[in-house]
Fold:
Amino acid sequence: MKLKKLGDKTYIIDSHNKVGIYLINKTDVAIIDTGLSDSVGKEIMEICNSQNWQIKMILNTHSHPDHIGGNHIIQEQLKVKIYAPKTEKIFIENPELTSIISYGGNPHKYLNNPYLVPKASVVNELSKAILPEGLEYFNLPGHNSEMVGFKTSDDIYFLADAVAGEDIIKKHELQFIYDIQKYFETLDFIKSLDGKLFVPSHGENFIDNKFIVKLNYDNTINIINYIKKICFKKATFETILKNIFETYNLKMDFIQYSFISLTIKGYLTYMLNNDMLKVQFTENEQFWITL
Structure:
């Protein structure tokens, strides 16, 4: 993990996904997300300590495990307050909900693991009033229900998982999206921004937001068109899922099955609501059919 300076007050710790650091003053910092695990949380504290920085608050963009994994240990050791949007707060305080939703019922033992169920932490609801001077937040729904991003006084935007960098799209075309309609609206919002630098949680930082938005938009449309192709004659959900795994070179396991299923259900909801697909029940089987 390396500390990188992006602006006068803005830094990142480059890990599996980026951890943002904003200087409140010469000694106090706000942390944006905390990575995947206790070990990442420990490294964040070590890096801040090496700079003589004191962590004053944690700001979570959303409740996915790879963004909140270091919350517990940092809060336990430093007694800092954690802030997140209202819905995300519920999931961070009750992380078992992520595996419940991922499975769609009482999760089995393979989904009750630290990747999906990090340690709980105490969270306060995010508001403009608690933010240090020079830091703003904005809504980025789509990837998750109430995800947010942050803008620093250096005109640098932290976009969480709202978009993937070009390198990530080339490597992993299928991105997790909860709500396709809101995701498209968020892409339009990001395209309208005028910033010095944009920081996605995964992938390279970028300046040309319009180019990256188009890549993410086109990639999503390609997946919609492929689902239409699969459902041209009619297909069950499991048939759609099998085709997606094979086409996008994914390896099925319990976790991948759960998260990719949620994503494909998001696509099917969007396509059904926008009259691209219809549903037919035949001999106690559900079929999706392209219109």
In short: The chain has two domains: 2-162, 223-290. The longest helix spans residues 209-230. The two ends are 49 Å apart (CA to CA). The CA atoms of residues 34 and 70 lie 5 Å apart.
